[in-house]
């Protein structure tokens, strides 16, 4: 196993709930309403797609850059109060470090959001960090995970990706990585090259190593 790559929102930290609150706030400001069925369409997607969907949903005449600033302000305000790691996340990161296994973070969030989250999780756990600011095509395109493996000089086929969304799983699979899915908002089915687990508490180094043939 060359490395383990972590998604962030909904996998490493409990931020899908925070995103939902901010999205509700922004869409209400745009004159619309927001529910779980709307969030489900955006899980694991790009910043640009989220903004475009909000405009499509509400028909509001507001510049995308303005909506982006509202989303960023809302997230930074809430993240300043702290964010909770998902169950088992910190323990798994420590176990990887104890075994000398390299780790990376690969997120569709912007760098500013990742920086805010890592204040509570610990940047020191990750040798590389790839955000939406570092790629031209976000998940489900394979570019984010291919970028991380390139920065690590790692073979994608010998890397394990931990993801919570179908978009993230699609990105990692297309990059040629093995995948452990821990679904959050949307269900994810078992498939060749993929293991689905109920929580990071059920993931350890022994399991991860068993996935690399």
Automatic annotation (TrEMBL):
Query: Gene3D superfamilies under this entry?
Result: HAD superfamily/HAD-like, Putative phosphatase, domain 2
Q: Which Pfam families match?
A: HAD_2
Q: Which ranges of the sequence are coiled-coil? A: none
Superkingdom in the source lineage: Bacteria
Is Nucleotidyltransferase given among the entry's keywords?
A: no
Keywords per UniProt:
Hydrolase
Q: Which PANTHER family match?
A: 2-DEOXYGLUCOSE-6-PHOSPHATE PHOSPHATASE 2, PSEUDOURIDINE-5'-PHOSPHATASE
Q: What is this protein called?
A: HAD family hydrolase
